[in-house]
Amino acid sequence: ILQKIPFWSAMISQGMVQGRLQFDACDIPVVVGGVLVHPGDVVVADGDGVIVVPQAIARDVSIYAHQELRSDKATRRAKYDALGLIPDETVT
Question: What are the pLDDT tens digits along the chain (92 aa)?
């Protein structure tokens, strides 16, 4: 993070140099890039960035996100049709 290089990991791994890493704890809240992440939170990352969704609202956020995706695709599809463009993966 200090080097401004995006990095996402599902687990901790140790490099080849032995003795430089020490296990501290697991299943505890951590701060990553200034954001508090609790165990069980959903972390989603893509080329645009990262979002952390608290576990307590993850289902509701998922439902809303899928509704937004369907609406966005429908709007794009209508614009493609109006312009006579061939649909691509953003509208199907």
Answer: 566 666 666 666 655 566 666 778 889 999 988 899 999 999 988 888 899 999 999 999 999 999 999 999 999 999 999 999 999 888 88
d(CA 59, CA 66): 11
> 43: part of which helix (H) or strand (E)?
strand 42-46
Q: Beta partners for 71?
A: none
d(CA 30, CA 34): 9
Q: Are 75 and 86 in contact (CB under 8 A)?
A: no
Return the bridge partners of 30, or none: 37
CA distance 64 to 21: 41
For residue 86, the number of C-alpha atoms closer than 13 Å in the C-beta half-sphere is: 0
